[in-house]
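for the recovery benchmark. tokens below, seq after
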């Protein structure tokens, strides 16, 4: 099954939505339900971590049922074999926690990849290996100030802030130059392990609304 999502399209879409959802849980079927619920509430890009039991089956389920314009990827993709497994399951983009061999393998195959990095050297190397964007992880170590400092020498690198980013922190990272934030437990809570979807849906709507409001504000400031 082909990705049907190019690196250029993924990057443009993430810039527009400013959000990536990250499902990690103890039940693959529950993770699939949570991912689809997030899509129904306005998230277009959702990754399911391979550390979730039956993650590949969950990816297949989400790929088959995703609303139009929504895309499912895999997180914690570490090896070339992982890339192959995810692609076969219908995963449309890859996400890594580090500069793993999966970065260059995804790039070689033309599959969009968000590569995990923390330091300036890692961020630069991630792009050299063909990353579509750099997943700044864990972003909470340095906060928006650290992201801003990273962007000073690398203004052309698209950063996605992941790790410890909640509703109260997201705007700070966007303001510091992140093209998006990645949301795990602050969005899903225990939904990926079978928890109640209703509060997760409410949080999803809040994040989508926050991102839309930030976008309108940014557009207004550019027009001044």
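predicted aa per position
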């Amino acid at each position: 099954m082909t990705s049907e999502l190019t690196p250029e399209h993924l990057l443009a879409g993430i810039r527009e939505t400013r959000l990536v959802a990250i499902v990690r849980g103890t039940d693959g079927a529950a993770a699939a339900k949570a991912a689809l619920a997030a899509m129904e509430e306005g998230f277009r890009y959702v990754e399911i971590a391979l550390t979730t039991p039956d993650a590949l089956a969950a990816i297949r389920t989400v790929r088959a049922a995703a609303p139009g314009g929504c895309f499912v990827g895999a997180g914690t993709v570490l090896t070339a074999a992982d890339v192959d497994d995810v692609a076969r399951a219908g995963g449309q983009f890859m996400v890594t926690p580090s500069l793993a061999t999966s970065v260059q393998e995804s790039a070689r195959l033309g599959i969009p990849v968000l590569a995990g990095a923390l330091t300036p050297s890692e961020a630069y190397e991630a792009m050299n290996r063909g990353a579509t964007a750099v997943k700044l992880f864990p972003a909470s170590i340095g906060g928006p100030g650290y992201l801003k400092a990273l962007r000073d020498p690398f203004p052309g690198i698209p950063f996605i802030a992941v790790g410890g980013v909640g509703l109260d922190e997201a705007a700070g990272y966007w303001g510091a130059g992140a093209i998006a934030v990645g949301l795990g437990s602050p969005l899903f809570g225990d939904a990926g392990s079978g928890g109640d979807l209703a509060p997760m849906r409410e949080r999803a709507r809040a994040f989508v609304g926050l991102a839309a409001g930030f976008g309108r504000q940014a557009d207004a400031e550019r027009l001044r």
